[in-house]
Every structure is written in C-alpha cells, then in structure tokens.
Write a structure and sequence with these properties.
The protein has 262 residues and is an all-alpha fold. The chain has 18 helices and no strands. It folds into 2 domains: 101 residues, Alpha Horseshoe (Leucine-rich Repeat Variant); 146 residues, Leucine-rich Repeat Variant (Alpha Horseshoe), CATH 1.25.10. The model has no long low-confidence stretch (mean pLDDT 91).
Amino acid sequence: MEADQDEGVRANAAQVLGSLLTVYQGRKMVESTGVVSNLRKALFDSSEDVRFKSCGAILSLTDDIIGVNIVVEHKLVIDIVAALDDVTMAVQETALQALANVLREDDSAIKTALDQSVVATLLKLLKQGDVADKLVHYATLCLQHLGNIHEGKERILRDGALSIVHLLLDHPYEAIRAAAAGCMMVVSINVEAKGVLKDLSMLKLGHLVLEDPDDTARHHATATLQHICELPAGREALVDAFGVGEGRAIVALVLGDPTYFK
C-alpha cells in the first residue's frame, strides 16, 4: 500500500485494510503492523480513490472504543480534521463520520480538534450550500459532540456556529434536526448560550417540541428550552411566547407545570 506506484493497487490495499479493521482481531493487530502510519500517508495520497478508501478504513477503526483509542493515541484526529478540507465530498463525508465517532467517545480528541480550528472548518462545510444530507448530518453531530466540554461550548459561541445550527432546525431530514437541537442542548448549559438561544431559537425549539415527528428532536428541543428557562428572562420569554392556545402544552412540558394543559 505504501510503496506501490499503481494507485489502483494502493486503493485496493486500503479497501482490504478497511475490511480487516471491521473485526476485533484486525483492530488488535494495528499496533504491531504499522497500519496507522500507512493510513495517515494515504489520507493525503494524490489519488482520490486511495484517499476515500483510506478514510473508510479509519472509519472502520472508529467503530468501537478500541479503535477510537488507537486513533487518539496515534494523533490521527489531526489528520482526520485535515481531511475535511479534501476536494472530494465523499472523503469529507467519511472523515466527518469518523470524526463524529471519535468526538463522541473521547474528550481529549475534542480538545485536539478544537486546536485544529475544527469549528471554523465545520462551518465552512455547512455554508457550502448544496451539500449532501449525510455531510450536513455528520458535521452537525460533530458540533454536538464538541459542545460536550466547556472549551467546545465557548468555541461554538465565539465562532457564531449557533446561527447556522438555528437554520438546521428547519431541515427536512429529521436526523439533522435532532442533531441541531442536540447541539443546542449541550451548548445551552453555558449561561451566555442560554441568552443567545432565548433570542435566536426559542420559537423554533417550541415548535419542535410540539410538532416534530422525531422523538430525539423533541427531547433535545425540550431539554434546550429547560436550560434556557433556568434564566428568569428565559422562563418569562417562554410563557410570553407559548402561554396561550395550543402552545400551553409546550410550557407544561418544559416547565413541568400541568396547569398549562388545562
């Protein structure tokens, strides 16, 4: 894979590695075979197909905690973030999925990714316009996982990511709406974010609570509104927005006040 001059051979080798890394024994052998080093180089191969299949192999590696630990220990997070700038959307999408898997499991990976300006990179991808739903989904999931630590919340706020996430609450793909609401849920633990989301997204979050067919989206939206309502001004804004008509059900669910069901 590393030495062959034929890009087809390199691509096939990367594909074989990807298949081997889907099984436990394959992941256990990574440490003794130099696979990580080869995959790192292949991520930046001149061939689009080699880059894509190498990224797929890394994705296979991140399917369980053993592989995630290998990725973190070998500092592959830096290379995965770099792969988000690939010219090929399929490589970007696969790298995003692998990154989401790692960020979900490891806080040190979040810090490494933040050091690589990953939030700015994710926003650049989301602002491209006509991109695949899966790419949008994985990018939003990455933002959600980044918000699990204090530094991630601060960076998401500072880089203005919530204004983009706000728009995704209207996305037709329910998994994207759920991830967008999930991002708001974790970031809204931050006091500053509560105020931002009160003014930016309270109405959309309320409509998700009342109308969205996806259980996860409704749950995340409800939790976000509960966080916002930890501010007196947030609670007041919720009642002002939804205290009459069918919106009373939203207030009842968020505040746990059954009188609003009447």
